[in-house]
Amino acid sequence: MSKEPIAHFEAASTLAVVVSSNEPLLFLSADQKVIAASTSFCRTFEIDPATIPGRALSELGNGEWAMPKLTSLLKATAAGSAMIEAYEIDLMRPNQKTRQLVVNAQILDDGNKDHIRLLVALSDVTDARAEAKLKDDLVRDKAILIQEVQHRVANSLQIIASVLMQSARRVQSEEARGHLHNAHHRVMSIAAVQRQLSTSSGGNVELRSYFTQLCESLGASMIADESRFSISVTVDDSVVEADVSVSLGLIVTELVINALKHAFIDQQTGRIAIDYRSTGSDWTLSVADDGVGMPNGSVAAKAGLGTGIVEALARNLQGEIKLNDASPGTAVIISHRGDADRRTRIPAAA
Known about the structure:
By secondary structure, this protein is of the alpha+beta class. It has three domains: 3-124, PAS domain (Beta-Lactamase), CATH 3.30.450; 126-200; 204-350, 2-Layer Sandwich (Heat Shock Protein 90). Helices cover 44% and strands 23% of the residues. Helix 4 runs antiparallel to helix 5 (174-198), helix 5 (174-198) runs antiparallel to helix 7 (242-262) and helix 7 runs antiparallel to helix 8 (305-316).
């Protein structure tokens, strides 16, 4: 069999494949004349199949395919100097919704080097883009709503803290005043947690800055003389989900408040050190002071509201609590081991 009949057979096969394709396809000559169009192309873009063969691409329909940039890219593709891959165009037709199309085009090698042919595939991504935009809009609206709620919560916490302080000034009982001051400190620390979370992105919280700002807030509200007492923070590059950070922040808050209230009785100076380290799903949080230590060398914690809060939060994180004599002072260590909770993690090294 001679090459000419083979070439005719291959050309006929190509035409048959193009016409029967379920995807919108165009078979073009080098000068962008339409050799064939798939039935899907004609149906999708509402063009009479009988009017297509032999016409220039720019003449199809009502001239909506006359796009200078597309024409230039197709010309460069035919010349072998470019290739159209996922090129997006807007197809605008009279009295119809603009369609967003993705175009791919390549030279079709049918064995005849003297007659360049282009195969153009088109995908209508209008609905997909609209759906993606809707999702983006919903995410943005949700973020705005959450931010508004966070502002309102922060304002409410400030109001509650002010009411507690006013009440503390009015009561006569020293015990009641002490309870109100404790409540005020806790509300202010929660407000600090709220402020930090409101600035976090993607639902994740970087613990170093989070603990630093939290302890700065606690120090500002409870330490009158910064030259005498201080709070230091040492944290690695750990990043945790927001709900985990809330529990960790409240644990730190309770332990710092407890240390400031009880660790430095009759001491002129003191230091509280917060340390957090993690490796994979394993992590350790410690809050240590150089104060008076546990009475009579005991390492048993006094039962109280703060202790109950810390224990409940540690259980929620599936952590184990240890109370050690730091000589001087006391160290509370909360650690998590194993794969029981994968919500804490450190980012991969850069």
